[in-house]
């Protein structure tokens, strides 16, 4: 049966919303772009795409100091869509801002501006690439193994992560030793990490019981620009199978 995916983002953001719709179509599913909660019943699953728009920090109890492009209406609509998806146990994939929105929705918080942002923030749509580590016994590890190279276009990131989300992938700054990386990944595997230092950026997380996955990177862009990075089809196909 052909699946229909709701791309819950802005119509005019080609590299994000429309790029996700094209990626989904390339893999054989239908996609439509709308962040109107009234359209939720038309879909089998939801994809929260990236965006140039940030998430208002008031949603996790802080004053906004890190983003000059906010859209409270988008935040409210995506929150309602997540509420509907969680209640119906419909699959959700969050990409970049979409992952951050999932984290905030379940009670987490964000770094408003990374001090390592030069490793992550692409200029315009020229994404950066970096190596990451996957947490053993997680979806990302099962798909990609211990390490994978991913792309990056962000300057904000997950900080505090709620207990219902399991960390599945991490970027480490060059200052983090191999021994420290192994220890951190072990703590992630045990569910002992509640807030990450900015030297250890969460690149993916999976909900403990719901079919909800968040990625800080952009598989929809990698699908068109594979370069030397991860095979984006693996995670997108897995989402469509949820």
From TrEMBL:
Record PROSITE patterns: GATASE_TYPE_1 (PS51273)
Lineage top rank: taxon = Bacteria
Q: Which InterPro entries match?
A: Class_I_gatase-like, Peptidase_C26, PuuD-like
Gene Ontology MF annotations: hydrolase activity, acting on carbon-nitrogen (but not peptide) bonds, in linear amides
Q: Which Pfam families match?
A: Peptidase_C26
SUPFAM superfamilies on file: Class I glutamine amidotransferase-like
Single GO cellular component term:
cytosol
PANTHER family noted in UniProt: GLUTAMINE AMIDOTRANSFERASE PB2B2.05-RELATED
The entry's protein name is Uncharacterized protein
Q: Which organism is it from?
A: Emergencia timonensis
Taxonomic lineage from the root: Bacteria, Bacillati, Bacillota, Clostridia, Peptostreptococcales
